[in-house]
Amino acid sequence: MGSADKIVRDPIHGFVKLSPWEQDIVDHRVFQRLRRIRQLAMTEMVYPGACHTRFEHSLGVMQVATLMFDQLRPQLEGSSESGPSFTTDDLDKARVIVRLAALLHDVGHPPFSHAGEEVMPTNPATGKKYKHEDYSTSLIRHVLRDCIDNHPTNTLGVSADEISSFLQNDGSLPFHLLFWRPLITSQMDADRADYLLRDSHHVGVAYGQYDLHRLVATQRVVRDRETDNFMIGVEKGGIQAVEGLILARYMMFVQVYFHHTRRAYDHHLTGVLKYVLDRAYEDRYGEHGTFPPPHETQAGTVQKHLDEYLGWTDARVWQAIDEGAAGPDGARIKERRHDRRVHETSHFPSAHEMDHFYEVVVPQLIPLGGYTDKADNSWYKFEKSANILVATTDRGIDRCPVPLSERSSLVRALQEVTQRRVYVPLERRDEAKQALRM
Questions:
Q1: CATH dotted code for 23-336
Q2: What's the whole-model pTM score?
Q3: Burial tier of 168 (Cβ tally within 10 Å: 0-12, 13-18, 19+)
């Protein structure tokens, strides 16, 4: 560790080292804002320990991504394989980009994390809502640019545009950089590798635990048998570690992220955010009840909009709730009168159960002020572009890897959760239960 490096003690990974450059980025207002964005929104209303933030998660993702990078790098350096070259300079620069991309991947999160994504503005280029990733890359390009491009220790010429492109995968980067992108976003990435352990720790459950050290130690560079491209896979001996990661994610979603009370609070938070944003901006940016967009409008520049966006934190929304200035949903949160679940299907409903839900249950409860909630997720993507590859040889860069789905009966057995629920206002819960008994 260099004399100017600092270490941060993390409850999940122990010591996390920061270079002087990374310290300056962490000290920047863009990153410091993450101290005021809870990782799991209002999950603390169910699990009181779930008070951790995007700040510590981002440090953890950088740490895990670095462990993965350092496991894979020697395999490329020591390879005599023909194909794209990975020079020492290329690898040095890639390591910096991986660390900074991991560190900054979540800086665009709205208040209350994913609950805030429901009130993102529309991207005029796609007609779809912006995502927090769009804000992250825009903040990197427009607000963090000077801290990245012009930092005195940036001796490798790393740019804000490269980090943003790495996160976006906009097609502008060479392969020796894009090769590393699965460390940030894939089915075996550092993001989920960190949040499962971290959320499990703070929530106080064991569901998210898996063997991170084995997962990292068994990662391998392989070559796709059809395209011959270098890819990141896993050794045969790491199959159980990957299965553990996938199963941990399944258990955390079913037991924590899809918890019925947590989902009710997410619903109320969406209503709160729409209300406070509408009061703050009306239709200044062309839409009611949304955040300032990460693009230029008649109301201002990208920089102006991002400065406005950075002012939105959990604390600002909580203040509105506490002051009674967050609308009907805010009042329900403040008074603990959140909506109640009165009916739910199984996690894997049959066609008959779904028909009953939509044809019998929903028509009875919607007139009582009810609404439906969809708790959907799949646990493994089987398409070729996403499938994790398993090496079939013990040494070198394997040219004949096979998809994990062919080697793992557990992965094949996990079904997609398609649970449906109906919630009604607390004061109509008994009436709803009576209607269901009729």
A1: 1.10.3210.10
A2: 0.95
A3: middle
